[in-house]
Amino acid sequence: MASLHETFEQLRSQVAGVLSFDDATPLGDDDLLLAMGALEGLGRVVDGYRVVLAGEVAERSSLESGRERRLSVMKGCRSASELIERVTQASGAEARRRVSLGEATRARAPLTGEPLCAEFPRVAEALAAGELGVDAAGVIVHALSRARHVADPAKFDTAERGLVAQAVGADEAAPVRCSSDEVAVQARAWALFLDQDGPEPDDERAMRRRGLRLGQARDGLIPVQGALMPEVAAKLTRLFDAHLSPRSGDVFGAGDDLAEHAVPAETRTSGQQRHDVLAAIIDTAARSGEHPSIGGAAPTVLVSVRESDLVAGRGVGHADGVEVPVALRAVQHMICTGGTQRVVFDDRGRIIELGSPERCFTPHQRRAITLRDGGCLIPGCTVPAAWCEIHHVIPDVDGGPTHPDNGVLVCWFHHRTIDTSGWGIRMRHGVPEVRPPKWLDPSGTWRRPTTSPTRIADRIDRRERSRRRSSRPAGRSDPPERRTG
């Protein structure tokens, strides 16, 4: 009689002889999907028995097994999952998942007394029959494990039966198999129903585990790691949604004779867009004056750069608190936004000259520019004025003053890329004008954009007066305007 090991080897050889990597090519669409479903059913049978064997290995490796030496220790491994890893070449996460499922679905045989039923008997039955996949089984076990110890047994059995039925397509509300993600939604709802006090321990544990940290610099970037509380993540998500949702409308808001233009296509990935929104949030918070000061001033990043490098347009800067060098383009961007202070050293390193901070727009100037521009000046950008930076249209090195006639609102991303994106900005009689890149508007026409509500209202009034004049019979004129105030 062949051993179980020999039987499995024979089955593997037979299946390998039936299947070929080239067999799927000639299949029609329906045959392809039917074959995939049938193979998945075969895989569920195999996966179910994988779980059984993993559970047995875990039992023989436990301290409570009653064995003189644990199986994992006998084979030179620290745990049952490590032993399974070495035998199967599965990942550590997969080995631990099999152990967890195996322990939850195997009937226990204590040293004394009657044998105990499996913790999840309905999941065990469905796994043994090859009806339930390990993904869905893991979802059910994970979601209901905590509630199992506090829930009414009858209600718990109802929840387990219902979830298994939905996963295998045997429930009236789920005539077809539910995916693991769909089962997860239902499982979380059942868990809350079974354990009304469940979220509180989760909240306390989450409060202890919450955190945010900056990693080591790598490839010119600083990785961010951590975990947010759900309500904090919800607020941040809403901020992202508000400023990353597609918008449309009158982009330029210019004179009466200008045609409407389409919003330029977004070239950033969603991750890059969220980064830029977060950058704007941080800048806004630093400017708000509502945060603790450092050295009597608002939180300010100090970036040092040699004057010779700045003049030559090469080299790097160095920001305090960050090890990775800052590109010169970023330095110039920060100078344009936050100003400069000239510090001169002698050959020995002594400070011999300390200039005053320069090129910083005052709060009064910022308010005036905000009323004029409304928000980021680049058409199609939805970043509001409070999140924008002020860009010197004519740089200081070229004689540009720090004056509203030379400052415009742009968001962090468009300010950072203003020299490479193809967008042109100029001032004409104190009014900003924008020229789109050639790929967007080959004509190279300068236009006056704004999202300022008052300026848009004025523009509408001008258009309406122009329309009335053009439609009035010859010889008639508008009545004189009445002004109040």
From TrEMBL:
It comes from Agromyces neolithicus. Keywords: Endonuclease, Hydrolase, Nuclease. This is HNH endonuclease signature motif containing protein. It comes from the Bacteria. The keyword Ion transport does not apply. Belongs to the Rv1128c/1148c/1588c/1702c/1945/3466 family. Residues 364-416 form the HNH nuclease domain. Residues 433-485 are annotated as: Disordered. InterPro entries: DUF222 (IPR003870), HNH (IPR002711), HNH_nuc (IPR003615). The keyword Membrane does not apply. Coiled coil: none annotated. One of its GO terms (molecular function) is endonuclease activity.
